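Record format v2
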Amino acid sequence: MDVLTGLAQWFAQPLQFEFVQRALLVSVVAGAVCAVLSCWMTLVGWSLMGDAVSHAVLPGVVLSYMFGLPFALGALVFGAGSVALIGAVNRTSRVKEDAVIGVVFTAMFALGLVMISRVPSQTDLGHILFGNVLGVSDSDIWQVLILAGVVLAAVWYKHRDLTLYAFDPVHAHSLGISPRLLETLLLGLLSVTVVVALQAVGIILVVAMVVVPGATAYLLTDRFERMLLISVAVAVAAAVTGVLASFHLDVSTGGSIVLAQAAAFALAYLFSPSHGLLRRRAPAPA
Amino acid sequence: MSAAIEVEGATVRYGDVLALDEVSLTVAPGRVCGLLGTNGSGKSTLFKTLLGLVPADGTVRILGRTGAAARKEGLIGYVPQSEQVDWAFPVRVRDVVMMGRYGRMGPRRRPRAADREAVGRALERTRLTDLADRQIGALSGGQRKRAFIARAIAQESAVLLLDEPFAGVDKRSEATVTELLLQLRGEGHTLLVSTHDLAQVPHLCDEALLLQRRVLARGTPEQVLRPQVLMEAFGVHPEEEATWTS
């Protein structure tokens, strides 16, 4: 058996299994949506916010399970709620924003942990924290697809305004376009996106999905449209590689996906022709 | 006819710090007003007040309208200080200039032919046509300034606020920028230009205002640039100042 057939086998063999197909669907869709949003996250500098929102949804997820509601519902309420809380505390106290974020998201996460230990559970903490993409239900898949559709539609409609906000909020304001409204939109999209990605990689690793692809693409291009394309390509490739590697090696799926993304980032960091560490030093533009 | 820029008794506090103290300013349409003062004298705060970015006591009127109405109509063009711009941001010069048109577009900000033509003309006037596809940071200091002036031209704003347009710009580009600003004045634009480069003031400005939290002096450049007045604001003689900045 030559290398090519071996490689084809490596890709094809797991696909006979329905659970692998479903895992791939969820991981690719979630990865792509996160990748789109990650471009703005990288440019606005909101990585920590992604981390905060993802951890803060835990109580919402637990409540959803307790009352038999779609997990996305509780997660969205708590994701958006914690963003609003961070904003409110930030505006009304002298504490700096990063500290406020640190206080709010850890408090929310702790609340979730406490709640989970009281719930007579079929809810497996491990699945929520680290993802369980190999065991997604039909309802999970639908939630992911619908929310992904909502995010992509909103981004398609407002992407130029979001870029304007990221680049020059003062100019937006001077045109009568409210930066506050755009910020709220972007935070709302972040909350929904985090919920989408929960299924694929779990709470702990979601932040990677909304940061790494965008950061990788940012190292590779100076054009925003290309940044979007590269970011999505990185995320999709990482999702496929991660799911299949986790099948073959019998290791954590979420972990594999994020490791694949990190590998892409490392390659771009070192070898990017324009911004890589090891690029041939060209004279800086005048 | 109403003034292009009219500020009446503007007072701004940041906590306990008084940033602007009862500042009043009137600029007639088609005039260039130089806004002079040291760092921390309130020049940027006055711009923020004109843009409605800080809560201020007093009133601001732009061409007889409230600040909010003037912004909605796209009457105020803003050229930011270099330090406030993320020069590594993945946008091209053309994209930045196009952002001047966003107020005229629908909610998706999809450019129409008229928008592309306006951007093309603005790039031509600022002599950036050949550089339009460069990333914004891949321009020289003077070209960067011209790119943001091009954005205001594409916006067709009647009033232009320029925050330190000569900072980080070499002598030759400085002349190009000045010439461009004088052309805009000739077309009826009203300009408020903050600068600590006093050498450009007599040539560019019809009037000047010296700020040190409150208005220290206002009038023609000659009146404001008198040595005694400058001593009070800058603590140095004007010729010395001019040599430092050139």
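Residues 241-246 of chain B have pLDDT under 50 and may be disordered.
Residues 123 and 130 of chain B are 9 Å apart (CA to CA).
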